What we know:
globular, Glutathione S-transferase Yfyf (Class Pi), Chain A, domain 2, alpha+beta, four-stranded mixed beta sheet, 56% helix, binds glutathione
Amino acid sequence: MALKLFELVGAESNRPFSPYCWRIRMALAHKGLEAELVPWRFIEKAAIGPSGQGKVPVLVHDGKWVFESWEIAKYLEAQFPDRPSLFGGAQGQALSRVYSNLGDVHAGQIVRFVLLDIYKHLDAANQAYFRETREPRFGMTLEQVVVDRDAKLQAFRDSLGPLRNVLKVQPFFGGDTPLYADYAIFGQFQWARAISDFELLAADDPVAQWRTRLLNAFNGMALAAPAY
Ligand SMILES: N[C@@H](CCC(=O)N[C@@H](CS)C(=O)NCC(=O)O)C(=O)O
């Protein structure tokens, strides 16, 4: 069995920082699966060409190319049913879709805090690509996107209220132990840590304490990765 995961990095090949790739890193660890980790940069489209699209994460399993974090998570669950479940059953899988979508919403919020920090971690060729693709998307310069980030912070923290209320009474969204629902949300916070020293969470926030529990999971795998 051969598994390969293409992961987004910047100038430093040992600093993976995609929120979606982190979801899959955690999912692989949850299943106790070893994968060859392939550092990949935005402009290296040819390397993932066989997947038929241009974004990571991309998983290659015995020659089969799988993309989209949610599809990869479902694929791992289906292919490795004897390993610890990512979803806790069919109903859990259905409910996990909500967390995956919620994680996407968080990514859309968090990017407005860390966009310029991502740019600062790229080499010159990827910086040019990043500016060319992101500035039209936001309709402003990278610098303008983050200029008022301090003012936006409280609203972001407030938006985490429903998650915070859950984490006040149970250690993980999965209950006593984490599931893919946890990784689908954690990916965004690990992305921000990997790339930015901007403190998204107050230290006494139950969400920060949950993040710490996941940083320490799997023998501190996420904690050991380069971050701020
Ligand atoms: N919905 C996709 C999103 C994947 C995605 O947006 N990946 C980004 C890195 S975080 C990417 O590869 N972007 C390539 C580009 O912008 O050219 C998933 O869940 O996997």
